[in-house]
Amino acid sequence: MSTSHVSALREPLVDGVKDLGQVTRDVCDPLDAHPTPAWYAAFAAALCALSYGAVMVISQIWTGIGSWGLNKTVGWSWDITNFVFWVGIGHAGTLISAILFLFRQKWRTSINRSAEAMTIFAVMCAGIFPLIHMGRPWLAYWVMPYPNPMGPLWVNFRSPLLWDVFAISTYFIISATFWFVGLIPDLATMRDRLPEGWRKKVFGFASLGWSGSHRTWQHYEMAYLLLAGLATPLVFSVHTIVSFDFATSVIPGWHATIFPPYFVCGAIFSGFAMVLTLMIIARKVMNFEGYITLRHIGAICKVILLTSMIVGLAYSTELIISYYSSNHYERFAFINRIKGPFAGFYWMMVFCNVLVPQTLWFEKIRRDVRVLFLISILINVGMWLERFVIITISLHRDYLPSSWTDYSPTYVEIGTYIGSFGLFFTCFLLFCRLLPMIAISEVKGVLSYARSDQDKESRHGH
Amino acid sequence: MNEEEARKQAAEDKVDGIKRRDFLQLMAGSFAALAAGGCQFKKPAEKVVPALVAPEEGVPGQAVWYATTCGACPASCGALAKVRDGRPIKLEGNPEHPVSRGGLCARGQASLLDLYDSQRYAAPRIGGFPGSWDEADLKVIRALEKARASGKAIRLLSSTWASPTARAEIARLRARFPTFRHVVYDDPSLLASVSAHRLTHGRANLPTYHLEKAKAIVSFDADFLGTWGSPVQFTKDWAARRKPDAELNLMSWHGQFEARMSPTGANADLRVPLKPSERYGTMVALGRLIAQKINWTGAMPASGPTTVSRTVLLQVAETMVAERRRAVVLCGSPDVAAQVVANWINQMLGAYEQIADLEHPSHIAEGEAGAFDTLLEEMSRGEVSVLIVRGCNPAQDQPRSEEFRKAAAKVGTIVSLAGRPDETTKLANVVCPEHHPLESWADHDAHGGALSLSQPTISPLRGTRDALATLARWDGRSRSAHELIRDHWRASVFPRVKKAGSFEQFWEDAVRAGVLSVDIDSGRTSFNPAVLSTLKTPRSPSIGYELIAYQSIPLGDGRQANNPWLQELPDPITKTTWGNVASFSPVDAKSLGLIEGRVVKLGAGGVSIELPAHIQPGQAPGTVAAALGYGRAVLGPMAGNFPTEKMLPIDFEPASGADVMMLSRSHGVSVELLSRFERLAKTQTYDHLVDPLMGEKRDLVRQTVLADFMLNPRADNPEEEKAESLWKEHEYTGFRWGMAIDLNSCTGCSSCVLSCNVENNVPVVGKAEVAKSRDMHWLRLDRYYSGAPDAVEGSPDVSFQPMLCQHCGNAPCETVCPVLATVHSTEGLNMQVYNRCVGTRYCANNCPYKVRRFNWFDYAHADLSENLALNPDVTARSRGVMEKCSFCVQRIYTAKADAKVEGRNVRDGDIKPACAQSCPAEAIVFGDLNDPKSKVAKLAKSERSYRVLSELGVQPSVHYLTKVRNKRV
After folding, report:
1. What is the pTM of this model?
2. Could you give the ipTM of this predicted complex?
3. What chain A residue is nearest to B773 in terms of C-alpha separation?
4. What does the pLDDT read at residue B641?
5. Is B476 helix (H, G, I), strand (E, B) or coil?
């Protein structure tokens, strides 16, 4: 990996004096050791949640969507809320790995691997919901344009749901590819460390015959750069298209041109909050405090603060435009958010997404991991609420008052949501055990070891 | 097949695990079992004559329509039964019937399902156990002979049985058994009116009302558009004068004084909440004002208490007097004195000249007030030896049912003719079950001037027998109902028909048409004012709330309470299904601290019932209203609850409601709040056009007043703004189907909703599902209150808006479906392709009218034999699929095919969707918007026309005509 000059004025990206071997050992040794009791406990909990969710999903498919709390007016609620929530979380990974890479943000190196893993698992979780929310999920393949003997019957290219299918699947494929390509040098490192045996063979196969030669490195870096370029537009397109599900509709509260940028920012916001949650745990549990430093945490906090303010701006723009529109239905949709039966959800959302992140202006808070952990959880909650507010509150009271209904979830919906967390953490915990959580080769390029002593001194001088 | 092939075939068969031959054997066995179970559909044995299609009967897959008469209530509307492959699958009004003229109410249409009810008796019952007809007849005849020998009384107790042949049979029985008497009871308000007419006009009859001639109608508690008397006929006539025209001032004025909010009151131009205890006093006060204006010199009735303001009464009186001879008062009071006052007012207004026709009296209710009480006394004195009960359920449907049940013990033999178990059959020694009306031959003369016939549309499904045949058997004759009616008609009806020809030809024509006009003039009557001075002011209740036990649109008097279609039909006012509510006025609810769903205990005379509360704007303070017919588990599973276990693990919820009949003897009931709550299964939970947060009125139901409309027909109905589209719009080169719905003549009777359910196999989902807002109705009646939403006094304006798929030109549902399961037809239909639907529900979310319905579960009929009522022309939808109104596309295609066969174009009016067909008010018009001469196109262009939410640019195909209220007071 390339090394570059880093100003001595900046905090080091990796704390402590480490040599290259030390880095490899730090990252890889835990993979060789037996898992800790904490890991076992966490894994057991995740598996339980996953199994519970699986039972809920199977029972729902067995009996019908009626086991959810939906009704004739509220056709989507927790299902699509969870879908957008997970897709949103899936945004940070690619943003960190691709966009920050293109902008030469070196601090991404310690966290990009796990952020990308998070992305992939989150998109997997997200993908479940559109599948199981169908009335007849066994016919889900009909949303794919494939040659068939039914005419052939084509899909409806005007439907934003179809765009979703393409957007999400493209995103998943590119993210997974990008992640895998980034893993190759580290897989080779793993291969080289392992004794002869089946594991070595597996890593050997997966590292695609990596030789570590200059030529290999050169090709590799070009491929990575190109992939980063390819993945970058996806960061914007996926959530833009998800937002079209709502923006292209006629339902007040959904039908808004502000949605694409608003959703993308919200997605980055929620994704970074989730990265923060995971990194705070990981650096503690895996002893990566030297790699995922307070500087990383601080950088994440600044992104969160910025996106939070954009999201807050979007909220107020929505309100002002609905007032300015003089459209009764539009105005009512927003007044109903503020004062209607679900107003508590709205104000909780504003609290979590707009007010809470304001504390991140203070460096003291940006350096207090315990407070940050709490903040990150609150933001996750707030962003889930945002989708709930948009989807459910807009639907439950739309044009004709005769159709207004209430909505409350059933245990099946809640269980399915819990199950999606189970899936996410099961995958993430397995990832922690099986693959290097930190991009070894990339971190080696940003070690403070690479700096000159002069730099260090001048820094200390300040 | 040679041996080699046979071996190969056998080998192949084995591969599948089950041999094909075995499978066929199994199947044959199952079919045999089905057939043995009574599910064979044969034509009736006698010659029956289809109405519209030449007698090439029995073409598989082709529907045959038989003219018959609806048997759901004594109003006996003319009906057409659609029979497919031997099964009646739909009942519609017979357009040729001179009284009902094509309309049929919800209960009448739903009576189809009663035919397939598995709870019906399969055989006579003797002492509670199944027996044979011979045994049953023997037992009854012995009892009758014994009574004759001992000289003890024989009584036939029935509801109105307006059948000439039945009258003849009863006369024969009376001749054979000297102690035989026929006691009739019915809706107490109709009986009171019969008695009042005997007092005032010397004729114990109901007049035939011609409301189409009335320019001013005032009703005191008569729900004549809902359940009172002959609602289909009344609605037809009333609606004829509710279609305002700016040039011709034809629109009638309708005032309603009533305690609960009835559908009729909801349609009135002036509605005054009035307690029953003030009804008499108010009527007299109004009568006196009218008397003053027309200089009435005769006697005057004694006055009574009233709190209605004199200004209101004066204005009503002025309006009525201004429309003399074209004004009528209808009274739904069970009190004879009030009915006499109504007759007096009608006499003063000249209503008997044109509107209330006593010369051609109506027989929708026979018998007089007090007849049942006399019978009860006889019974309790032990004088009745044999009591035959037919067409009524005295152990439940009478305020004095409790006493009846006690007195029944003193009757020698009780014989019931009920076709299905009820409270009375529990007391009966012998049950001789009669056919469902769709299986029987019958004749009816409920309406003056019209004789109608019922012909069977299916051979009896069970071991039941025609009531007429049963009576004849007891008279010692073995004659079928068919023979009895033919004989009677040959002897009594045929000679009166002027037309010559053979009886056979006459009979065939009569059966084909289902109805025959006969002139029956019973002569002039004159008013006897002397009776007025003898009237006594009715006593007012001493304590508590005044109870109003009313007949609701879905259940009526409750005889069809086991009918799931009716249980799930929302009451048009309370919008509640699957249960009863206790309605309170907002004022009382406030003072009692009541909120909706709080269970209250209503008590009177040591009896109490528990019902969830409902707060009803417009209800008279000091009253509590509850519908009859609920809470009767004896009728079968539907009346008590809906067996939801068929639909897997959703929570089971019993249908609620107690039998309010128990309390209805008392006028005053005590109200006690319990600490329980019950969730009401409502299909509409928000009632106002004004939103609750900003207080702005939504422009969904456009309404104006007649005075403004006469000046400017576009009053309160601005023209639609034409928006340019960026896109190429759909082109309709042939037909463009559309609909026009007149909000002014729609009464909320819900006939269309039920018709749609039957036509389109709309599933019944049960109470728990409706409570979760998962009702499946393709067509719903939105009911809005306007005026101030918090008004606790007075009466709000009520509007009904039938809401169905608007078949938008730019349908928001069509663009969002990922799999093209909902698409646009070249004729403007928005089509739902069930087998392509994967169930994303995006279309339903994006529908601004929220008319799409999702199959959350597999909603099967709980009673499997009721599957026989399914319409084979419409796919039964499976779980996970969206559905919605199709404009009855199957009817469109049938009409087009018929036109093609006949080598002509489809004519305007050929196609009537189920809703339009059944509407007694003719409020729904369907047709081709592309044809400028079609009725619908003309209405769509009329000045009252507007489209709901047209500002969204979705281009709906359904046009609504504004509501014009004739407000004068």
Report:
1. 0.89
2. 0.92
3. A71
4. 44
5. coil
